Structure formats: structure tokens, C-alpha cells
Amino acid sequence: MKAYCPDCMGALAATSADSVRCTIHGGTYQVLFQREPLNPPVLEVSGGTPAGTPPKLAGHRCVQHPNLPATRQCQACGAYMCDTCDFALPGNIHVCPACATKPQTEMSSKRKGQRGWSYGLAIGATLGLGVIFSGTINADPNNPGSEDAVGTLFMFIVLIPALVGMALGMGAIDRRLTNPISLWIPTIWNGLIVGLFLLLCVIGLMG
Q1: 201 in any annotated domain
Q2: Are residues 84 and 129 in the same domain?
């Protein structure tokens, strides 16, 4: 694959197995690794904007190479980058070289949002459990269908929110990134609620 100078974007020529030289200004560089291009060739159109560039990227330039139009935005820091600077991580996550070479210590806004929803659903499911234990809502022994109706109601106010909250919490946990304890708490909390609800169902069936 072709390699380009990070300073002037001139063509690089190999001088040894692990070094290259710029054919324009003569600078030499060490080859740290090789990777195949992750995207198809970018077609240039009038105005310097690649064909098929999303509207939000139109007019933006790569942070590292201002002479090149941006084709992606870093999902970690939001920096605009060209195809050369695009690093694809597992899970279809695209980051810039700076974020790819340093550990991420802060949670992204998406993961923070999932954590917030997980906490909210855990609180709601806990309140639903409180309603169950308080006996505020009980089945009418004279109405055969009331027991099923009450069971369905408790499923919607306890089981489903807890399952969704647990899924959101687990989705925000990433082994490759930093996972603070505040992210584990709602996940485990929702999991305990799911387990307790299922236990109550088993006890009810046995009773």
C-alpha cells in the first residue's frame, strides 16, 4: 500500500525494512507498523470534499493534515480526521491517532447516558418492588382474571425496567476502556432486582 509523509503528504519511499524517506523534502521516518486501508479510495469532487462525505463533515479539514478534507470524526474526542488518520477499533469504533495511542480515562457521553438510564430504571424497578411488598395492589379473590392482571402489571413496572436497565449497564461496560464503579452499581442493582422478581414468581407458583 502507498504511504504518505505526515508533514507534507508527499510519497514515501522505503529505504530499509523499517524506515522510509519522503521523496519531496527528504525527511526520514521509522515504520512502527503497517495496516491495510479500512475504507475504499476517496473520490475528490469540486471544492475538495470527498464524494459521499456526510453533511456534518462537509467543509471540515483533518486536524493532523489541514490540506486534506475530513472523512470521519473521532468517536472519542470529536476531532475531524482523514482516511490516513482513521483507526478502527473492535466494535466499529473509529478514533484518531492521538486517542488510539493513549488510554481513554473518561467515559464517553453515550456511556454516561446509558449509565444514567440504568440508574433511573433501577430506581423505578425498586419502587415497583416496594409496591409488591407493601401489598397496595392485590388480586381480587372473587375475580379469576385479576391475578393475571396484577402479575402482568408487576412485570411491566419491575421486571421489564430492570431487564432494560441491566442491558444498558452491560452495554456501557467495555473491557478495553475504563469502567468506574458507578457503572457497575446500576448493572448489578438491576440484576439483583431481576433475580428477586423471578424468585418471587417461583415462590408464588409453589405456593
Answers
A1: yes
A2: no
